[in-house]
Design goal:
Blueprint lengths: L1 E10 L2 E11 L4 E5 L6 H8 L7 E6 L2 E2 L5 H7 L1 E3 L12 H9 L7 H6 L2 H21 L14 H13 L5 E5 L7 H16 L3 E5 L3 H7 L2 E6 L2 E6 L1 H6 L1 H10 L24 H4 L2
Parallel strand pairs: 3-8, 3-9, 6-7, 7-8
Antiparallel strand pairs: 1-2, 1-4, 4-5, 9-10
Length: about 280
């Protein structure tokens, strides 16, 4: 579905992402993990068009999107959320969700100023698209509430609805569980699974290893801007390069682990820390 080859970007002498080659399969949940500063969010910014790479290429559904601006990337079918919840707290939940659908409309500035028929038609389409997205994330009943009145979990779901209303094929989630308590994290995991069952492909950056190991079909591990491992959770947790990166660079110890449902961890696998088990 998505293929990057030798992808890289540098800011002055800092190579934030360097020579990364990877592929994302349709219908799966792929997690991108790594220590702080590994280049994970920068990698997301390259895929979604926020940054222009200095090397390499990005193919989506067989088409080159390497140099496309963000709005064109969204129009092709890639949507994303951000580490911090980027919603308009004073607007209604529905108004927030409608914003994401605007990439699918054709009305321009003059249509909006003159309230043309095309603008009214697009507004109704956006309203329908926004409501459909809210249904998918379980917020249809809260559509009329100010977005800022929702819980942390609710606001995260509004952000996901904004992305979904653009009708993506691939959804990029940047630390979706940040700031959530254990119950909210479990609810989020269930939502992500439902979205994939409904036809989406998901790539997520996440530090909560309980979520990653419980959700991901495939894991891509980054360190110092480079890919150091790729594979299933079981494969990655045993990889010597991953063990070295996590145990060598984290003052608090490793974050990886194979056990997700009470199973014993594999010999040599990096273990979940006490903190991440309860994250």
């Amino acid at each position: 579905m998505l293929e990057v080859k030798n992808l890289g970007i540098h800011f002055g002498g800092n190579h934030a992402v360097q020579d990364v080659t990877a592929s994302i399969e349709a219908g799966k949940i792929t997690a991108i993990i790594g220590p702080n500063g590994a280049g994970k969010s920068t990698f997301f910014n390259l895929i979604s068009g926020f940054y222009q790479p200095t090397s390499g290429s990005i193919q989506f559904l067989g088409q080159d999107i390497t140099r496309l601006p963000t709005h064109d990337v969204v129009a092709r079918g890639i949507a994303r959320t951000f580490q911090t919840t980027t919603i308009y707290r004073e607007l209604s939940v529905l108004d927030n969700a409608m914003i994401g659908h605007r990439v699918r409309t054709r009305a321009g500035l003059w249509d909006a100023l003159l309230r043309t028929g095309r603008e009214r038609h697009d507004e109704e389409e956006s309203r329908a698209g926004g409501m459909a997205a809210l249904e998918r994330v379980g917020l249809a009943a809260q559509a009329g509430l100010p977005a800022g009145a929702l819980t942390q979990e609710g606001q995260k779901r509004v952000g996901i609805a904004m992305a979904l209303s653009s009708d993506p094929k691939l959804l990029l989630l940047d630390e979706p569980a940040a700031g959530m308590n254990p119950e909210e994290t479990v609810n989020l995991m269930a939502l992500i699974r439902e979205l994939v069952v409904g036809g989406l492909s998901v790539v997520l950056v996440e530090h909560k290893m309980s979520l990653v190991m419980g959700l991901a079909d495939e894991i891509l591990v980054m360190h110092h801007g480079q890919k150091i491992a790729e594979g299933t959770p079981a494969q990655v947790s045993r990889d010597p390069a991953v063990i070295e990166a996590y145990l060598g660079s984290h003052a608090h110890g490793g974050q990886m682990g194979q056990a997700t449902n009470g199973d014993a961890p594999a010999p040599g696998a990096v273990q979940l820390t006490k903190e991440s088990k309860h994250a």
